[in-house]
Every structure is written in structure tokens, then in C-alpha cells.
Amino acid sequence: xxxxxxxxxxxxxxxxxxxxxxxxxxxxxxxxxxxxxxxxxxxxxxxxxxxxxxxxxxxxxxxxxxxxxxxxxxxxxxxxxxxxxxxxxxxxxxxxxxxxxxxxxxxxxxxxxxxxxxxxxxxxxxxxxxxxxxxxxxxxxxxxxxxxxxxxxxxxxxxxxxxxxxxxxxxxxxxxxxxxxxxxxxxxxxxxxxxxxxxxxxxxxxxxxxxxxxxxxxxxxxxxxxxxxxxxxxxxxxxxxxxxxxxxxxxxxxxxxxxxxxxxxxxxxxxxxxxxxxxxxxxxxxxxxxxxxxxxxxxxxxxxxxxxxxxxxxxxxxxxxxxxxxxxxxxxxxxxxxxxxxxxxxxxxxxxxxxxxxxxxxxxxxxx
Length: 368
Fold this sequence. Notes:
The chain has helices spanning about 1-25, 40-50, 60-65, 140-150, 150-175, 205-220, 285-300, and strands at about 30-35, 70, 80-85, 90-100, 105-110, 115-125, 125-135, 180-190, 190-200, 230-240, 245-255, 265-270, 275-280, 305, 310-315, 330-335, 345, 365. By secondary structure, it is of the alpha+beta class. Strands 8, 9, 10, 11, 12, 13, 14, 15 and 16 form a nine-stranded antiparallel sheet that branches. Strands 1-7-6-5-4-3-2 form a seven-stranded antiparallel sheet, covered by helices on one side. A two-stranded antiparallel ribbon has the order 17-18. β3 (about 80-85) and β4 (about 90-100) form a beta hairpin. The longest helix is centred in the first third of the chain and has 23 residues, at about 1-25.
């Protein structure tokens, strides 16, 4: 019995000693990882800049199926943030600085331990060289946990390595997997919507859509409004010569809703029109190809564009429905004039000199 007491005392003393040793160690840490992502720099940047994409490549996120995520209206660019929780652990990230296609600075939080996170992107042969670095200071509990788990450097470094490997695999497959189908002529129905209209340079169009669309949907959620269909974009003006585009981010409503003056969101009406419908299943980087295919179909099949109508993109399935870009669904509606129905015409056949038939009866013919 006395031996057991001594053993227990030794265990306690050993634990206290280890704890004191760990507590007196520096809590500062710096973890850095570099990898080559086999995708263009602009695509890599856009993907990591939006927190909603992190579920597809973050090693700790893809591994834990019991984790839940909370996203505010802004999930990309400076000021963006998100949080997560799995019952026993929690954390979050916030973006403080963004230099487009170059670098991102964020602050992360894991169970109270904070870290400054830096992303740096550079063009390289075969794709993009990406470096992620984290700097911070561990609290006592984190230092103890890291000590018995092989060290903070190893834990975080391994997580970064797996995350970058997942990022490369995800982008390689998701960005290259897509289909485009011209569905044919359809009728776009009338209705009402709420919309926000802006004018910008053509190169800023994709970024502004990604920023404005979540804000519109957040507006509906905040004001307990119900969508009566899928959100869409109306192109009011698309001027390549002057590098200007005016567009509206729209969300359909069951009835007309009037918004107080001074709001950037206004009430709108959906005008019905005949259009050519084309469907893209895949990432938005393939929209340009989808538009070209639709325009070629109109030309090759003798349709005339109706410039009085509004060119439209309807977002049937987005990142809010499924995280994988290869499964996003976008419809393109280009207004066209319906072809006039073919009218039958009549023609008089030449008479013959056959005595039994003194005259002929006009026979109707149909033009091909």
C-alpha cells in the first residue's frame, strides 16, 4: 500500500514538473508551409479569399463531419469572417488585408489562442506558388496540449500541408469539370423582385457579383422575406468599347415590395420575354465560354437578338447549395425574337395543252 502511495506521489510530482517546464517555455510560435498549386494565380486567390470555400480543402474541416459553420453576409475580402464549432472546440477567422491576386492577412482564433495568418501567392512554372504562415502565442492549455501531441509546429505544419494538398486537388478537378448545354427557346415569365444596381469596369464584374449577391440574400433573411425563385443578374448595359457594365443583382418576390427611399436596394419588375436558354454546370470561370456558345447558336440558327430585353444569368445552384464548383448550375437567358410562323403560299401551275384538261386548279405549296 505504501508503495502505491509513493508511486502516486511520483506521478503527481512528474506531472507538476512537466507542467512547470511547459509553462516556463516560450509560447511564441511561427509555422510556415509552401506548395505549388497547379492552377492560375487568379483562380487560387479567388478561391481562398472566400471563406465559404474553406470547407472543401481545410484539413481540420474536411476531417470533422460534426463541425458546424456560421457565415455572415460578407465572407470574402477585407472585413470578411466566419466561425466554427464542433461541440468541444471552436474558432474563427477574420480578414484584415487583401491585395488582389497577391496576398491576404487574417487573424485566426482556436479555443482562445490567436494567430496572425499570412497568404502569399506568386506565379510559377505549372501554376501558383503559395505560402501560408501563422504567427502567434499559445496559452498554457494549448502549450500542454501541443507538448503531448508532438509540438505545435508539427501539428499546425501538418494541417497546413494537408490543406494545401487538398486545395490543389480540389481546384484541379473542380475548375476543369464542367458542361455547357444550349437548351433552346423558352419564355421568361413576369413577376416582381428586389434589386441593387451598380456600374463598374468589366474586370470588376465577377468580384462585385460575389460581394453583392450574399448581401442581397442576407437582406431577405434579415427582413424575413421569402424568395419566389432563384436569384439572378440583369445586364442593363454591357459596353466593351468603353469598358463599362451596368448590372442589377435581383431576387424574385411573390408580390411587389416597396423599399424606403435612400436604400441601395430597390423594388423592381420582371418583364416577360422570349429567350434562348443555355445551362452551365460548373464554376463561373466558364461563363464566358457558355455565353459564346449561346451567341453562336443564335447566329447559326437564324435568330435575331432582341436588344430591348435584358440579358440574364439565373443562379439555380450556388455555393450555398453545394460547396463543389463542378456542381454549380447557372442559366443564361438571351432575349431573341421568336421566329415568325411559316405561312403557306399558293402558286399557279403552268397550263398544258392537254385537251381533256382545259384549265388547272391552283395547287398550294409550302416553302421549306
